[in-house]
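FBXL4 protein
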Amino acid sequence: MPPVFPMLTVLSMFYYMCLRRRARTATRGEMNSRRAIESNTRALPINVEIVQYAKEVLDFSSHYGSENSMSYTMWNLAGIPNVYPSSGDFTQTAVFRTYGTWWDRCPSARLPFTRTPSTFCSQDYVELAFEEPVYPTAVHILETYHPGAVVRILACSANPYSQNPPAEAPTKVNGPQARQFTPCIKQINFPTNLIRLEVNSSLLDYYTELDAVVLHGVKERPVLSLKTSMIDMNDIDEDEDEEKFACGMDTLNKQFSIVTLREWPTNGYFDKLPYELIQLILSHLTVPDLCRLAQTCKLLYQHCCDPLQYIHLSLQPYWARINDTSLEYLQSRCTLIQWLNLSWTGNRGAISVSGFSRFLKVCGSELVRLELSCGHFLNETCLEVITETCPNLQELNLSSCDKIPPQAFNHIAKVGSLKRLILYRTKVEQTALLSILNFCSELQHLSLGSCVMIEDYDLIASMMGAKCKKLRSLDLWRCKNITESGIAELASGCQLLEELDLGWCPTLQSSTGCFTNLARKLPNLQKLFLTANRSVCDTDIEELAANCTHLRQLDILGTRMVSPASLRKLLESCKDLSLLDVSFCSQIDNRVVLELNANFPNVFIKKSFTQ
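Structure:
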């Protein structure tokens, strides 16, 4: 006689099978955890939660601070909090290099790569090491100023990274007040003591500041509670239990077999589409989707492997998966590639020098743009291969490639077609840079921010003025020794400059006339950063108002000599001005900022505070 409640019987069997499966496959850690719970004789349970702060900062993509200081640097993330729960702008915190969308609106802005997955929005990262490997149960991020930039938290294994996607989407935070950010995290199946934070500073109106990161975890892998809402179907045995359901599956298969499926001899109307139209349709797919689609049929395989689909290729969103095998797999498809983004890839041995060299020797002939930011596998051989195999290269980004030895940069001088060169936080030395400037006269965009090994920036500026007449943007952020002499040579020779960053250059003094000279010689300036130069005065602001009417972004953070009257003249004259940073300007109080905001509503006027 059939059971009265057949569904209940099936569910009972399913529940029993899950219990038996989990009992059979329980790990030693799970058994020990059970014993710890059952025994009252132990002093501490094995799975007591461990709470620890970061022991060391291993790697990062950028920071606001200097390479020779602790102020505003990523190294402040190591150890206990310095500031939290206070809110405000503090030098003891970790601050990334940029904020907001302003960097995307200046002359040096680069065109984005297409096919970037919508789920990937990271712009910067920092990697933190902790003392004890644990199974994470929570991650607390102590944010003390303009929170809301963290978009992804990753745990490192020996692989090296877990492939879990972000557990929580970024959300805009109203106000700069401090907070403890504790997003939901996914359980991982390995212990870790290396956590990576990825941030998107464009979500915020100003610099975000992080004080510390707290990792909570247990030493033994947690036992999955039977009260969880879902049970993985892969946990069911495929041997013994499969036999019990064989009859039911046979019946179901017979029912499906009754339906007659018409077999098409061709791909229907898809074959009638023009080749170019199919290529256009496929151009909207991401790289992983292209690789999957290539496995469906011969026609789509042909389209997905067409080198025209890989003219612009960004592998940065997949940095944790890219290795020598990946490059070898893509090699035949990238013979016509013009833009290539390998930023963040290849670290911890994932990409070898030989693997990178083989790829470029096959795919480098048409390369125009090469992004290699934070590529710590790069060495002198790699730069030599780049210069030999990429004769058409116009843009090279080596930002934060701090493992490249100084002598290796001499090879860049062989690429005379370069128009953009980013050397931020590299070990380039003066001799190599002089050679690059001498032979790369087509340069339009040059970043030398935080290049601490250059001894005489006046000599560098003089060479720029003599050789780089087409220069449009120049980043000299935290250049320690440029003087009014170098500025004069630069302004006289590079009169097409539209963007100039002289932030934190302490040797420049307004009393020498260097800033008024800039304003008079560079009428095309759209962005000028004079961050933390205490000597900027009303005369400099008035010269900018009179001569640089196209100015869009101005940073005079920290000056004590600028009055509200000169700022009003500037705002009235520069109709396109959209960003004005007057943080810590002693004569510009909150009342003045409110008044200026009311009279010039199209300008974002920033005034930082400290509590």
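The radius of gyration is 29 Å.
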